Amino acid sequence: MSYAGRMYFRMFSPGLVILGLGAVAAAAMKAVQQVPGQLGILSLYSDLPGWIVAGAVIGAIGWVAAQAVRVRLWDRGAIASCYVCGCLLSTARASRRGLGMTRHCLGCGKVHGVNHRLAPVVVPLAVAVTAVADTATAQVRRVRSLP
Q: Which of 5, 86, 95, 138 could disulfide-link 147, Cβ–Cβ 3.0 to 4.6 Å?
């Protein structure tokens, strides 16, 4: 399976899980309706399995639609992608022991830190500008030496 295929599987498989859990819950409710007792009143809960399936279908369609929007934005380049495989990155989460925020790649699984984006605009330091101007006029003794 390619990285892109793995990414699509990781994004869209929860929709199938939602649909499957809804079908299992509806089948369980249908079986419980036949049992005598407080929950087994057939006339009171006769529409409940259908509503459970409908809720699961709506939830699965909502999940798949949200992931399709993410994939479309990723195709357009509006969402960050992995620099290793090019797949979509997951949402930012706190890493272990308070070391900052990380994002996992949905394709290759690599972890990308987001701490390097603390400032939205990079401001050059005045010290760096004067140091570059001073070193431009000095002679170089060796390639690896500083003047």
A: 138
